Amino acid sequence: MSKEKIFIFDTTLRDGAQTEGVDFSVEDKNKIAKVLSEVGVDYIEGGWPGANPIDTEFFSKPISLGKSIFTAFGMTKKTGRSAENDPSLSPLINASCPAVCVVGKAWDFHVKIALGINNNDNLENIRDTGKHIVKNGKEFLFDAEHFFDGYKSNPNYALDCLKHAFDQGARWIVLCDTNGGTLPHEVGEIVSKVTKVIPGKNLGIHAHNDTENAVANSLTAIQAGVRQVQGTINGLGERCGNANLMSVIPTLALKESFNKQYDLNIKKEKLPTLTECSRLLDEILNRKPNKNLPYVGASAFSHKGGLHVSAVQKNPKTYEHVDPKSIGNHRNIIVSNQAGRSNILSRLEKYGVTIDSKDKNVQKILDKVKEREFSGYSYDGADASFELLANRLLGKVPEYLKVESYNVSVSKSEKILTKANVVFLIDGKKIECTGEGNGPVNALDNAIRSNFKKVEKYYNFFSDLKLLDYKVRILNTGTEATTRVLIESTDKTGVSWFTVGVSPNIIEASFKALIDSLDYKLYKEKAPANLNEE
Ligand SMILES: [Zn+2]
Question: How close is the Cα of 46 to the center of ligand 1, in Å?
Fold first, then answer.
């Protein structure tokens, strides 16, 4: 039996672009469209040509997107003019793309309040716009805005709106839950009724996430008969976002209740590009990736409890609903005070350290991690510090930066002045580094990094080092407040590493994390040891 096809329509560049704080450049749009075409989505909605200069430019020349259909977005014509003479429609007809998706009202309340026209005028606008687009040789998709609310208010009118578009040759009629307030059981009931009027093979769903049901609503709509799903990468979209395609796609592809019945044009071997696609969007938006995203988040396959970890090592199926590799993600074993030996062992294995599980050193590392965690350290997300700690205990890390002393002073006369001084002992020689900054940590960092040249032996290793992020947490463990500092660093390889420092004093905590970062860089590049005489 041949399976029915489900089509994937991405609207990250149109609906997603309407999110607060999101401003895609033409170059950003090109990058995102390219990765979406590599994933193999069926439609890529690029924006609204004519509505703003960026979208107009984006649609001005043809773009090569493999099998994905490049789609422009627009609105039905205005009342009182013909579709031919509506200036907002001509950019859609002239756009370099084969398909046009037009939004129109399907809720009588909106027709009256938002447009201020009568129901028949709205139907005529839908009909004439559809006719005009089809006549000009474009594939026509109709987004029925507020369809579910419209159906609840006036089902006959809402269905009439759909029919007026469908009768003009719309390839797709997309049922939109624009306010995102419809619940899965309602979507199921309403879509089943719609399929009696418009065939399911021509129906799509466009769900918003205002009750956190956008993905559930999309899946329910498919079960009730629709064959196209609209959504965005990571669920990007205004308010609470759109349906998250990074969850919809793997669910359809990997879950038996869907994949035994339906097929996607996205090939199974392309699914591992999803994690990369998700991270690329965050990188473009300069946002920290949400670790907890299903399927593609960094924590989606993280295991922390000791019992979980030992079971996962026997068989990953014990605590994983799908294989992380299938969507390009990976398993992550977190070290914590709940950790047993198995955690430590698999973490060491990750860094290429093979050690017998009965080796005394495993207990030594475990004890040290527990002791440190008791004082406020957390190695969750501080991989580099963990790697250094473990390998130091195994005697695999030579001494690098030996700090003899440091000093930070803050003074204020007209403005605040922060000075720092760090003395290193390298190969028996004292090296003094002095610097200023806008705060104590910045001053220490500047003191060290603007004097790298003086640390001759290690200068070359530090020339491409960059600090990316600095985070401070005040912990109230025990009787006094303790500070935990996490530093993210990178170099020319583009790979980040994370180090942690803890102390009741914020400067000492920062300094420890900073020195760990520098030591880690030296360790990973196998720099020569510091030869101080004892
Ligand atoms: Zn929307």
Answer: 14
